[in-house]
């Protein structure tokens, strides 16, 4: 389990939060059913590194001033342009109690014909925190147009329950979209305009 180091954060004004971020800290909060909300701060670079080493849907060990909590990342707020983390919410969990979370669906391989399209990018699961899969990977190699991958086709580890019906479609193999008549006509018109412009340019050079 990946560890995240944090410090207790004194509640303050918006200016103090901005100052934290300028100094490389990410403000956050940790909470749970058996504890009151605790304001914390985490070094941004260390948090980014931890999230790269382990999927965000898996449990982390949050260490706050010598106190250790098993947590899940509940929410990350990111800057809309820069993408850096602005705020992090952690929820304290019991490693012996089931949790509900989502697991991403990934594709490998290439269909024989057509294009593989993800209908659902993630699947809801229920299991003990230590059993959460990092992802469900589906090999679409050799599939053809009209083929589908259902929830029932997933390889599900023991102890993991899915929150979707077995007949739910996850991936569909669709035909490659042909260019519309409008786009073909537009390309033809553009070619004519370019040809006319080229003729004018050449005549101007004479």
Automatic annotation (TrEMBL):
The gene is rplY. Residues 193-206 have a biased composition (Low complexity). Part of the 50S ribosomal subunit; part of the 5S rRNA/L5/L18/L25 subcomplex. Contacts the 5S rRNA. Binds to the 5S rRNA independently of L5 and L18. Gene3D superfamilies: Ribosomal protein L25, beta domain, Ribosomal Protein L25, Chain P. It comes from Brevibacillus brevis (Bacillus brevis). CDD domains: Ribosomal_L25_TL5_CTC (cd00495). It holds the Pfam family Ribosomal_TL5_C. Belongs to the bacterial ribosomal protein bL25 family. CTC subfamily. This is one of the proteins that binds to the 5S RNA in the ribosome where it forms part of the central protuberance. Residues 98-175 form the Large ribosomal subunit protein bL25 beta domain. Residues 185-206 are annotated as: Disordered. GO terms for cellular component: ribosome. Keywords: Ribonucleoprotein, Ribosomal protein, RNA-binding, rRNA-binding. InterPro entries: Rbsml_bL25/Gln-tRNA_synth_N, Ribosomal_bL25/Gln-tRNA_synth, Ribosomal_bL25_b-dom, Ribosomal_bL25_C, Ribosomal_bL25_long, Ribosomal_L25_dom, Ribosomal_uL5_bac-type. Residues 4-90 form the Large ribosomal subunit protein bL25 L25 domain. NCBIfam families: bL25_bact_ctc (TIGR00731). This is Large ribosomal subunit protein bL25.
